[in-house]
Amino acid sequence: MARFFDAEEISKTYPGVKANDRVKLSIDSGEIHALLGENGSGKSTLVKIIYGLLPPDEGKMLLNGQFYSPQSPRQARANGVAMVFQHFSLFEAMTVAENIEVGMDDPPSRSKLEANIDQIGKQYRLPIFPKRIVGDLSVGERQRVEIIRCLMQNPKLLIMDEPTSVLTPQEADQLFATLRELSSEGTAILYISHKLEEIRTLCKRATILRTGRVVNVCNPQSRSAQELAELMVGSSFAMASKRTPSEVSEPLLQAVNLSCKAATEFGVSLSGVSFSVGKGEILGIAGIAGNGQKELAAVISGEATAVGSLRFRGIDLLGKSITERRSLGLLTAPEERLGHSAASEMSLTENAFLTADQRMVLSKKGVIDWKKTKEFALSIISQFDVRVTGVDSHARALSGGNLQKFVIGREIAQIPESLVVNQPTWGVDAAAAAIIRQALVDLASKGGAVVIISQDLDELLEISSSIAVLSCGKLSQPKNTNDITRNEIGLLMGGVHGSTIGSETSGAAA
Amino acid sequence: MLEVEFPGINLSVFLATMVVAAMPVLLAAIGELVVEKSGVLNLGVEGLMIIGAVCGFIVSVETGSSIVGIFGALLAGASLAGIFGLLTQYFHASQVATGLALTLFGLGLSALLGQSYTGIRPPDFPVPDFGFLSELPVIGILFFSYDILVYFSILLVIVIWWFLKYSRTGLALRAIGENHNAAHSLGYHVTRVRLAAILFGGACGGLGGAYLALIRVPQWTEGMTAGAGWIALALVVFGSWRPFRVVFGAFLFGGITLLQLNLQALGIAINPAYLSMTPYIVTIVALVVISRMGNQTSIRAPACLGKPFDAPK
Predict the structure, then answer these.
(1) Which of these, A168, A340, A428, B308, could form a disulfide with A336 (CB 3.0-4.6 Å)?
(2) d(CA B73, CA B80)
(3) Is A74's CB within 8 Å of B296's CB?
(4) Is B299 helix (H, G, I), strand (E, B) or coil?
(5) Which residues of B touch A263 (CB under 8 A)?
(6) Is the pLDDT of residue A160 over 80?
(7) Which residues of A touch chain B, with CB atoms under 8 Å apart?
C-alpha cells in the first residue's frame, strides 16, 4: 500500500553545498514521523520544499497517491499541508484572530472566525482568547496560535519544526497530548527536533539526515539516545562528564537582592535576584528565554545598571565598569554570538583581542601586539576545534556552531576566576555542544566559578552542580542538582513560585 | 500665503481655512502612512510633493484644466515614487539614502521644470454647488464651502482606515510591515505589495503638492513645499501610524500655521521667526503627548519599518 506522503530522490543544491541529496521520506496517515538531523543537515531545506517555499532541483513528491509539487505555501495549504515554524511566523502588533485570518486562504467573517478559534481551542485543549494582541502573549500561548492557525485548515499533513524548544516540560506534555489526538484522527505529522528523548516518546519512525542525505530510517524507541545522536553526527563522541558538586566553598560571585528595571517595553525587569557561586561550582540558571536571562547577563557583565548587591571576590561590582570587571577576572559571554559576542565584519584575531586584551595583556601602552593576539586566537581555534580557514576569516563567515565554539572558547581560554555564559550551546550541533560543555566542566574543575544561563534543561541537569530557575525576572532558590526534579523545574519555569501566582507572563520577543 | 485678510474675526471662516491649509500635509501623510504600514520608510515625501506641485501646475496651465492637472500630479508623484520602489525593492538600495536623494532630486528637478511658470495663475479649481446648503449660516461655511478635493481627501482617509482595519488586503499589508519573513512564508508577495504601497504613497504625495500649487496658494514658486513633506513624515510617526490621529495632527498643523500668520498680520510684538516655528513645535508636542497615552504596544512602529526584504532563494 502506498504511503500517505512520499518524497523520492529530492535534491537541492545551493552554491557550494548540496543541501538535499536524493532524499527519500515517507509518512503514513496518522503517523507521527520524526525528522532528525544536526544543524545544516538539510532538514529545513526538505521541509521548505514540502511546504512550497523552495522548489527542488530534482525529485518528486506524492501526496495521497497524487503527484504533488507546490509552487507556493498557498498551494501547499490547499493540498492540506500545514506547518508550524520554529521561529514563529506571527505578527506581534496584531490580534490572535487577525493572525489566524492572515494565514487562511478563505477566511470566514471575523465573528465566525473567533467562534471557530474558541471551538478548536476547546477541542484540542489549546485555550486562547481571540481578541488579545499577540505581542502580549507568552511563548507557549504564541505557539498555540500557530497551531490553531494550522488546524483551521484541517491539515492532512502537519509539519512541526522544533516545537518544544521554547516550551516548559509541562507545556511540552500538553503539546504531545494534542499531537497524539490529531494523529488518532488520521493527521500525518512530520516532527522535526533534535531532542532525542522526546522523539523516543512520541514517534515510532524516524528519518535521520546527515549532510543532506538520509543515513537511516529506524524506530527511535528501539535505539538509545546515544545511538541516535551518533547516527546524526556520524561519529561517536563522548558526552560531557558530570560535575560532581565539591565541598561547599567560599562564595566567589555573589548577588543579593539584585534588581533592575527593564530597558525597553519588551524587556523584563529583574527583581530580587540572589545567588552565589563558589570556586569549582557550576550554577545552572534554567528558564525560557525572555524571562530576564539577557538582563541578568547584562547586569553581571556591567552593561546594565542594577540596585542591590553584586560582589566578586568580596569587591562590590555595581559601581565598576565592564573593563574593570573583566580585569578582576569575571568574564561574560552573551547570548547573541553575532553582533554581541563577536563583531561580524572583523577577523577572528581582532575579535580575540576585543575581550582578551586586559587579561591576556595583548597590548602595550595602547599599541596592539598583533603577534601575541594571533597566537592567542590560534590557540582558541585548536583547543576548541573551530573549523575555519584561518584567523583572518571574518566572524560572519563562520557557521553558528563554529562561531559559538570560538566566542565561548575565547573566554574559557583566558582561564577566568568566574565565567558567566548565556545560552552557550544554542543552535550548536551535538558534537560541538559536547565540546563546549566539557570545557565548562573543565574550567570549574580548575577552580573557576561558572554560571550557565540556558534554556536547555538537559544540558543543565548534565553538568551543573546546582540549579535555579529564572521566570518573569525572579530567580528561584538555587538547589543542588541531585535534589531537584525535572517536574519541579518545569513548575518553576511556568512561574509557579508559590507566592507569585498570577503575576503577568512576560511577552518578550523571542 | 496671506489669504486671510482679516485675522481672527470669524471662527467658522478660520476653521474652514484651516481645513484647506491642512490638505497638502494631510494627503502626503496619509499616503506615507500606507507606505510605512507596509514596512517601507520613504523619506522622499518632500520631493514627491514638490514634483506633484510643479507637474500639476504645468499640466493645468498647458491644458487649461485643473482636473487634468491633478491627474498629472498623481502620475508624476507615482512615477518618482516608482524610481524609489525600483531602487529599494529590487536593487536593495538603502531606503534612507534613496529617500533623501529623492527629496533633493525632486527639489532640483521641479525648479528646472517650473522655471517659466512662476507668477502665472493656474485655472480655477471647481467647487461643487450645494445650492441652499452652502448658504446656511456656519454650517454652510464649515461643511459646504470646499473644493471637491477636500471631500475626496476626507473620503480617502475613511477608506484607508477601513482598508487597513477590515479588508483582507489591508491585513496582508500590515502583516508584511510587521514581519515580512513570516508574511512571505504564508505566501504573500512582499515586494509586490510594498511596491503598490510606494506607488500609492507617491500619488498621494503628488496630490498633496498639487493641492498646494493649484488651490491653496495658488501659483508656482520654487521650493514652495517648504518642509511640508517633512511635517507629513513626522505626523505619521507621532500619529502612531493611525489615520485619524494623522488627520488630527494635520488639522492642528494647519490651524496653528494660520494662527501664527494671523498674529504676524496683527503685528504682535513677537519675533516672526518664533511664530513661524510654532506650528511645527505645537503639532509635534501635541502628538507626542497623545502617543504617550494608552497601550504602548498599539502605538509601535511597524516592526519591519525600513528593513530590506530579500526573499530566500
Answers:
(1) A340
(2) 11
(3) no
(4) helix
(5) none
(6) yes
(7) 51-54, 72-74, 77, 85, 88-94, 98, 101-103, 107, 133, 135-136, 265
Which has the minimum average pLDDT: A447-451, A504-508, B208-212? Answer: A504-508
First-to-final CA distance of chain B: 54
Distance (Å, whole) CA A200 – CA A34: 9
Q: Please give the mean pLDDT across all residues of chain B.
A: 89
B153's grid cell: 481627501
Q: Any residues with CB less than 8 A from the CB of A375 and at least 6 apart, and which?
A: none
Evaluated on CA atoms A334, A335, A339, A344, the torsion sign reads positive
- Picking from A89, A107, A136, the nearest residue to B186 by CB comes out as A89
CB A401 within 8 A of CB A429: yes
User: Contact, A194 vs A456, CB < 8 A?
Assistant: no
Tell me which chain A residues have a C-beta less than 8 angstroms from the C-beta of B183.
Answer: 89, 91, 102
Distance CA(A458)–CA(A62), nearest Å, equals 38
- Grid-cell match 539577557, residue found: A294
User: What pLDDT does residue A195 have?
Assistant: 75
Rg (CA), chain A: 24
Question: What does the pLDDT read at residue B9?
Answer: 56
Question: A185 or A401: which carries more pLDDT confidence?
Answer: A185
Query: Cα separation of A242 and A250, whole Å?
Result: 22
As a whole number, mean pLDDT of residues A93-119 equals 89
How many other CB atoms are found less than 10 A from the CB of residue A81?
27
Of A77, A89, A93, the CB nearest to B182: A89
DSSP assignment letter at B91: S
Q: How far is it, in rounded angstroms, from Cα B49 to Cα B30?
A: 13
B201 versus B302: which is more confidently predicted? B201
User: b/e string for A455-484 if b means 16 or more Cβ within 10 A?
Assistant: bbbebbbbbbbbbbbbbbbbbbebbebeeb
Q: Compute the CA torsion angle A444, A447, A449, A454 (nearest 10 deg).
A: 0
Question: What is the spatial distance between Cα A172 and Cα A457, in angstroms, rounded to a whole number?
Answer: 13
Residues of B in contact with A98 (CB under 8 A): 171
Condensed to tens digits (0 to 9), the pLDDT of residues A292-348 reads 888 999 999 999 889 999 999 999 999 899 999 999 999 999 888 877 888 888 999
Directed axis angle between helix B272-292 and helix B243-266, to 10°? 160
Instruction: Check: CB of residue B31 under 8 Å from CB of residue B198.
Output: no
Q: Is residue B311 within 8 angstroms of chain A, CB to CB?
A: no
- Contact predicate A362/A376, CB 8 Å: yes
Instruction: State the DSSP string of A50-61.
Output: HTTSS--SEEEE
How far is B79 from chain A, CA to nearest CA, in Å?
30
Q: What is the pLDDT of residues A21-38, one digit of tens each?
A: 999 999 999 999 999 887
pLDDT more than 90, % of chain B: 57
Task: Give just the sign of the alpha carbon dihedral B165, B166, B170, B175.
Answer: positive
B chain contacts of residue A93, beta-carbon cutoff 8 Å: 174, 178, 297-298, 300, 302-303
pLDDT of amino acid B296: 59
A74, A87, A102, A111, best to mutate vs chain B, most B CBs in 10 Å: A102
Chain A residue with Cα closest to B298: A93
- Chain A residue nearest residue B170, CA to CA: A102
Sketch out chain A's domains with CATH numbers.
Answer: 5-233 (3.40.50.300), 251-493 (3.40.50.300)
ipTM: 0.76
| Chain A, nearest residue to B168 by Cα | A102
